[in-house]
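thread: overnight batch results

M.L. [08:02]
morning all. the overnight job finished for the chain we discussed friday. pasting input first so we're all looking at the same thing
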Amino acid sequence: QVQLVESGGGLVQPGGSLRLSCAASRSIFSSNSNAMGWYRQAPGKQRELVARISSVGVTQYADLVKGRFAISRDNTKYTVYLQMNSLKPEDTAVYYCNAIATGTSYWGQGTQVTVSS
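M.L. [08:03]
and the structure it wrote out:
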């Protein structure tokens, strides 16, 4: 069974940092071609790409988070991370982990990130 379990969300003040984790099933990481990503959805807005990383570590970021966020993966722990620094109120959203493996897209349940003073 394929699973993605996010953790690490919470309430943080502007300028603060959070690290999100996404624990994935071994079957995803063992796929010859897989990509992992983080998306977010704010109230009343569409879900948008934040960052993604390929199976060989090539990364891509949304313009709004470049220089502040960093995505990484640990293939030995089947986990993807999103380090978020210099957080802004507009970063407030539910953050979702996404995995694409063997042509199939999988989603986690989401974790809330709230940036507020």
